[in-house]
Each structure stands twice: as C-alpha cells, then as structure tokens.
Amino acid sequence: MASIEEAIAAVGRLEQLDRSRVRSHFEVRFSVTRQAEDYEQLYRHLIQARRSFSPAPRTGVYA
Fold first, then answer.
1. Global confidence as pTM
2. Which pLDDT value is given to residue 45?
3. For 44, which DSSP code?
4. What is the pLDDT of residues 8-57, one digit of tens each?
5. Alpha-carbon distance 23 to 12, whole Å?
6. What's the confidence (pLDDT) of residue 15?
7. What is the C-alpha to C-alpha distance for residues 26 and 7, in angstroms, rounded to an integer?
8. Could you give the angle at the alpha carbon of 40 between the alpha carbons of 31 and 54, nearest 5°?
9. pLDDT at residue 60 above 90?
10. For residue 4, which phi and psi values (nearest 5 degrees)?
C-alpha cells in the first residue's frame, strides 16, 4: 500500500482473496528458512559496509 486511502480501499476487497493462496504465500515469505536467509544477507551487508568504511588514519600525538 502506498497510502492510507489505498489500505482502506483494500479492506473492502478482503472477501475476494483466496485464503489458501494467501496462506501459501505467507508460508513461503515468512518461513523460518526464508527469514534466516534474509537475516544472514542483512548481516553480510552490514559487515561489508563496516569493512568498506575506513576512517582517516590518525597521525601525530594529541595533547
């Protein structure tokens, strides 16, 4: 949904949804395996981003 209005309009169409199709989609999208893979991908991305960030080296002595 791109807006609250779209979400409100969608509520009126709930009875048209095929419940078994919704359930199948849910099981694929939110399975334990899928969620674990998504988190692993996120963690890899965060690690890579951290590795690619290299702050300027400190030189000299600060007093």
1. 0.51
2. 96
3. H
4. 999 999 999 999 999 999 999 999 999 999 999 999 999 999 888 766 66
5. 19
6. 93
7. 19
8. 155
9. no
10. -65, -40
| Token reading at 44 | 């890899």
What are the structure tokens assigned to 22, written together?
A: 């919704």
Residue 20 token pair? 């078994």
Cα separation, 46 vs 43, in Å, equals 5
* HEC string for 7-42: HHHHHCCHHHCCHHHHHHHHHHHCCHHHHHHHHHHH
Report which residue type is found at 35. Q
Q: What tokens appear for 16 in the block?
A: 């048209």
